[in-house]
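Handout, section B. The chain below has 105 residues.
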Amino acid sequence: MSKAKWVFIICAFVCASYYGAWFLWRAMGWHWHTSANIPGFAMLLLSWPWSSAVFGFQIELQEYIGEAPRHLVTSAFMAVGFAFNMTLAYLAVLFLVGKVKSHNK
């Protein structure tokens, strides 16, 4: 398996795990400090534009499928969008490093 596939899988797992933990803490009524939301906001911003469609329809998703499935759909879109963007960033860095190395020879 190529390294880019591993980057995608690891980033998707990290994002999905974070939002799974967030939902679990909220559903169980446990204390979730507001500073723990910072990684979530970072992942939200880094998953744009792939997650913007699902965030545009939060009210409709809530009405049609309920709260827990809405969180699942939102987390899935965010995880895939975050992983896709991080994989693109990884490939862009590899491309630039290759260009710089070939230019310096």
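Note. DSSP finds five helices and no strands in the chain. Compare this with the example in section A.
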